[in-house]
């Protein structure tokens, strides 16, 4: 797999710009994981943190699911990796967890997110509510939050990848 990162358009309308930056950050996380073995993707390389690249991808699958399925579209979509007993389950990997499964799940959640977002305008209010606060959000806020979420975790991915095999890059 070779990840192609597309720079967002510099003169696009607001929605195209937001979607472009979100896709850019999705592609950046995939790029940071590219070319590594399952064992390397499960490696917690920045002590004392237990964070791994595969754990980040699984986390982002949960985040995509939460914001675009549960909040935006009010779907009754349960968790993928976490449980009530293990609220950080997406980060707790076993030897049987594979990149193939994590990547496929993440990509499926991204496609679902795109499908659900296409039904809403930027100012449209979500059909569902945030599970903790009960708030509703417009799609613009969700896009902006998702860009922030990916940008923060891509910084983590930079450090993890460099420690795993020395690879660096923007």
The CATH architecture classification is Up-down Bundle
DSSP, total strands = 0
Helix content: 40-55%
CATH-assigned fold name: Four Helix Bundle (Hemerythrin (Met), subunit A)
First CA to last CA: what distance? 19 Å
CATH class: Mainly Alpha
Largest sheet: none
Number of domains: 1
Radius of gyration: 16 Å
How much of the residues is beta strand, in percent? under 5%
Structural class by sheet pairing and helices: mainly alpha
CATH superfamily membership: dinb family like domain
Dominant shape: globular
Extract low-pLDDT stretches: none
Short description:
With 170 residues, this protein is mainly α. The protein is built from five helices and no strands.
Tags for this entry?
Four Helix Bundle (Hemerythrin (Met), subunit A), 170 residues, mainly alpha
Structural features, described:
The chain is mainly α and 170 residues long. It has a single domain, classed as dinb family like domain (Four Helix Bundle (Hemerythrin (Met), subunit A), Up-down Bundle). Helix content is 53%, strand content 0%. It is built from five helices and no strands. The chain has helices at 14-33, 38-41, 53-72, 99-117, 139-165. Helix 3 runs parallel beside helix 4. The longest helix is centred in the last third of the chain and has 27 residues, at 139-165. The model has no long low-confidence stretch (mean pLDDT 95).
């Amino acid at each position: 797999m070779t990840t192609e990162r597309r720079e967002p358009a510099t003169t696009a309308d607001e929605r195209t710009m937001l979607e472009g930056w979100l896709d850019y950050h999705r592609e950046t996380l995939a790029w940071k994981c590219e070319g590594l073995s399952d064992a390397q993707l499960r490696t917690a390389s920045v002590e004392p943190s237990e964070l791994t690249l595969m754990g980040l991808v699984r986390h982002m699958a949960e985040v995509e699911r939460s914001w675009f399925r549960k909040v935006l579209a009010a779907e009754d979509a349960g968790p993928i990796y976490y449980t009530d007993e293990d609220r950080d389950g997406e980060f707790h990997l076993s030897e049987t967890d594979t990149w193939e499964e994590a990547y496929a799940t993440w990509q499926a959640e991204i496609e679902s997110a795109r499908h659900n977002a296409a039904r809403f305008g930027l100012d449209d209010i979500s059909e569902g509510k945030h599970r903790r606060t009960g708030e509703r959000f417009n799609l613009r806020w969700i896009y902006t939050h998702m860009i922030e979420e990916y940008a923060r975790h891509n910084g983590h991915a930079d450090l993890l990848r460099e420690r795993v095999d020395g690879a660096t890059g923007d």
